[in-house]
Amino acid sequence: MNIHIIGGGAIGLFFASQWSSYHQVTVQARTKEQAKRLETDGIRVIENNQESVHIVKTAKSAPVETNLVVVAVKQYHLNDMLKELPDVRSLLFIQNGLSHLKQIQPLSNRNIYAASVTHGIAKIDERTIRVNGRDTTKMASVKGGHKEISCVLGTPGFSFQWEPDVYEMLVEKMAANTVINPLTALLNVKNGELVENSEYCAAVETLCAEFAAVFPYKTKEAVTQSVFAVCRKTALNESSMLSDMKAGRMTELNAIVGVLLNEAARNNIQVPAFSILYNLVKGKTPDFNTK
């Protein structure tokens, strides 16, 4: 396929590196400097103490022959990006939370997909990423589409799993995001410490219970098991929210935890632990200026 990836963050670079030998891939980088580095030096991937370089092309917009555009930008950049989307047959969105579903459903593109990513990927510099843990990328249809694309996109070591319900797929991923991201950001720890520290474990279990009360697709036990599994698979990873906080960037707190708080309020469900966590994280980040 001819695939154009919008976004040169950790996930965008990871997807590009995994597809580079099997598909025609272009990356729409964040800056001219990043585009130049990618064109000159390629994407550098560090995994299991080994390094590999993957050559990709960059483009300011999707080439005319593009079959699939992958939108791999943060939730808070999505509104601006939607105004500039090319008229292509298929789109794949990779965002955290649930709020982007309402934003992308009205789009006129024939096939619209969403993906759920739990790989542990850290961006080191403009061309370098570190893979701290691999998992299966789940994807589902938002509109149109067909499950065969999950087979087409899969490569050795980089598999895709088709899910029948996009909402439930994103809710399942949201459980890990709403618990792991703000906790690690507040505590300044890597994902694995939430499992290794008994006191942190207790906090995780409390939050998982509240999550299950708001989104009762799974039991409290199932949600807790799923979140701990992600912590173990990405034990060495620094969550995106912690990385954003350290860099002084706006986080996806509203897109992740804010959505849960809104859903809880709509259904008159009390989530005191999440409410406290939200306020504590928001007070430590630039988000407090962007209510």
**Which whole number gives the mean pLDDT?**
93
Query: Can you give the helix content as a percent range?
Result: 40-55%
N/C terminus separation: 40 Å
Number of H/I helices: 12
Largest sheet: 8 strands, mixed
Shape: globular
Low-confidence parts: none
DSSP strand tally = 12
Q: Give the radius of gyration.
A: 18 Å
Strand content: 15-25%
Order of helical and strand elements: EHEHEEEEHEHEEEEHEHHHHHHH
Q: What structural category arises from helix and sheet content? A: alpha/beta
Strands in their spatial order, largest beta sheet: 5-2-1-6-7-8-11-12
Characterize the structure shown.
It is globular and about 50 Å long. Helix 3 links the parallel strand 6 and strand 7. The chain has an eight-stranded mixed sheet. The protein has a four-stranded mixed sheet with strand order 4-3-10-9, covered by helices on one side. With 291 residues, it is α/β, with parallel strands linked by helices. The relative contact order is 0.12. The chain is built from twelve helices and twelve strands.
Brief sketch in words of this structure:
The chain is an alpha/beta fold. The chain has helices spanning 10-19, 32-41, 78-82, 100-104, 148-153, 166-187, 193-196, 198-214, 220-233, 240-246, 253-266, 272-283, and strands at residues 2-6, 24-28, 43-47, 50-54, 57-58, 68-71, 90-93, 111-116, 120-123, 128-133, 137-143, 160-162.
